[in-house]
Each structure stands twice: as structure tokens, then as C-alpha cells.
Amino acid sequence: xxxxxxxxxxxxxLPGERWADRTFEHCAFTDADLRGLVTKGCVFDHCDxxxxxxxxxxxxxxxxxSCRFERTTLTESSFTGCSLLGSNFFDVRFRPWQVVDSxxxxxxxxxxSLRRTTLAGLRFREANLVEADLRESDLQGADLRGARLAGAxxxGADLRGARLxxxxLRQANLSGAIVDLDTAVSFAAAHGLRVG
Length: 196
What we know:
Blueprint: E1 2-5, E2 18-20, E3 22-25, E4 38-40, E5 43-45, E6 58-60, E7 63-65, E8 68-70, E9 77-80, E10 88-90, E11 97-100, H1 166-171, H2 181-190
Parallel strand pairs: 1-3, 2-4, 3-5, 4-6, 5-7, 6-9, 8-10, 9-11
């Protein structure tokens, strides 16, 4: 696997590139045109994708560790079997965004607009979802334990089989959310009700 450290890809025009088994450490991709990029088995460690265009990109078994995405375009991109561990997203254009079988542990998605996005089965352990718009999203089977959900809007979201802790159940707006019996009981207990 080739390793690139500290490389400067700022303002690079590389649409439709295909990268496999490459590692990028502390590289700058700010303002780069990476539209349609395809990656497989790559690692991006502490890389900056601020203002980059990753629209229509496809990523398979690729890791984005502690990367920065600020005002990045991710519309119509897909992430399959990927890790976004510790990455932060600020004012990013997501929708439509496809994420399947991926790990979003400790990811920063505060204020993210993810309405009607399919996020089923994803791991959001200790993620920052403060004020995130998750209305009508599919979060079936998602792991939200330890996630910060203060002000997160989950109105109409499908949370069947999802795992949430008491703090999340108290902080998030769950009005109109679809839940299973276990979550309903946990919600009641988190709000001080005694289920008998």
C-alpha cells in the first residue's frame, strides 16, 4: 500500500479518479475537484476536505479517520463498508447521501441536514448529533448509544431496533418517531415514568 504524507492536493482537478489501496496522512484536499472519485481500501488519516467537491463519489472499504469536511459537497456520494471514525462535518451538502454498513463512531454531525436519509444499522457511538435534522430518516437498528442528541430532530424517524441510552431519549425531539416496544419502555423510564 502506497503512503503519502502531507501532500498538497489543494485546488487539484481530479474528477473520476480511481484510487485503490492508497494511504493519505495529513494531506490537504481543500477546494479540490474530486467529483466522481472512486476509492477502494484506501485510508485518509487527518486529511482536510474543506470545500472539496466529492459529489457522486463512491467509497468502498475506505477509512476516513479524523478528517475535516467543511462546506464539502457530498451529494449523491456513497460510502459502503467504510469507517468515518472521529471525522467532523460542518455545513456539508449531503442529500442525497448513501451510507451502508459503515462506522460513524465519534463523528461530528452537529446541525447536519440529513432529513429522509437512510442510516439504518450504522454505528453512531458517541457521535455529535446536536441540532441535527434527522426528520423522517431511517435509523432502524442504528447504534446511538452515547451519542449527543441535544436538540436533534427525529420527528417521524424510524427508530425500530435502534439502541439509544437514557440521555439521548431525554435530549432528542422524538415527536412522531416510530419505535418498537423496548424503546417505548426505555423512553418512558428515561422520563421518570414507572412501567408496571
